[in-house]
Design brief:
mainly alpha; 10 helices
């Protein structure tokens, strides 16, 4: 076999070597092409992954920007809420103090109806006593009145002077025994009787005209308003329903169900034109407690 090969011609050997080289080259090229295709497919996959990762990075960056903006917005809202909470706490402290003063005033006013009733009874007693005193004086003067049949101007003047000075009717010249008896029992002059004469002789006060303007409310700079005195006056001057409505109005202000302007408007309607001084005192109390 070796002899056969060795005996071959050199050209045949050369051609045989070239075929071997071609076969090896083709095999090597095929393997390189397969490897190149694999690398290309891998490169394509990597490019797809890179594109996906880039889009994911862009999406995450957008989310991060939105999160930063949301965080800044939440921080601003937190600061605003903290400031509003402090303001609400201050207002609640003022309203709580105002509520305690109102409750204390209501507790102190529990004895006000009894005092008002006794004051009214005492006033009625004084008026009744004055009326009885005036009626008794008039009856006594009518029972002992002396009317002579003929009286000269001098006699009439003397009678009026004696009656005014309280010396009785003894200074008047009598013409009958009945006149002496009237002069003997004439009532002496007393201060109460003199005051009654002055009260009846004094002219009545002239009522104000209907078109006259109402008096101006007292200024807060000249009059100091006390909460207890205000609620005592309001409870005495308002009716039971009006006073309860006024307390409900204040409770609505405490619960922040209405504004100060609405509270003042309802208070003006509750007090009415006859109690405008109470309205201005209530407004001054709100200013005093820092609620307007």
């Amino acid at each position: 076999m070796e002899l056969g090969v060795s005996e071959q011609h050199p050209d045949e050997k050369f051609r045989h070597g070239l075929r071997l080289i071609e076969i090896a080259y083709d095999e090597r090229s095929r393997l390189a092409e397969l490897e190149l295709n694999q690398l290309r497919s891998m490169n394509k996959e990597r490019q797809g992954q890179i594109t996906a990762l880039e889009s994911r990075v862009a999406e995450l960056e957008a989310h991060m920007r939105e999160a930063n903006e949301r965080a800044n917005h939440v921080a601003n809202e937190r600061d605003l809420a903290r400031n509003e909470l402090k303001a609400v706490q201050r207002d609640m402290a003022k309203l709580d103090q105002f509520k305690r003063s109102i409750l204390q005033s209501i507790k102190d006013e529990d004895v006000a109806p009894t005092l008002a009733t006794s004051s009214v009874s005492h006033d009625h007693g004084l008026r009744g006593g004055a009326h009885n005193l005036m009626y008794g004086t008039q009856q006594l003067a009518g029972a002992h009145q002396y009317t002579p049949a003929i009286r000269s101007p001098a006699t009439a003047a003397t009678y009026s002077e004696s009656y005014r000075t309280g010396t009785g009717l003894s200074a008047v010249p009598s013409r009958s025994n009945g006149a002496h008896r009237s002069a003997a029992v004439a009532p002496p002059s007393t201060p109460a009787y003199t005051e009654m004469q002055i009260a009846h002789s004094a002219p009545a006060p002239t009522p104000a005209p209907l078109g006259a303007p109402a008096p101006a409310p007292p200024s807060s700079s000249t009059a100091h308003v006390d909460g207890k005195d205000f609620f005592k006056a309001a409870r005495l001057r308002l009716s039971y329903e009006q006073f309860n409505t006024f307390l409900i109005n204040i409770r609505s202000l405490n619960d922040r169900l209405q504004t100060q302007e609405e509270t003042l408007a309802q208070a003006r309607n509750i007090f009415g034109p006859d109690n405008q001084d109470l309205f201005f005192q209530f407004k001054e109390l709100l200013v005093k407690h820092g609620l307007t």
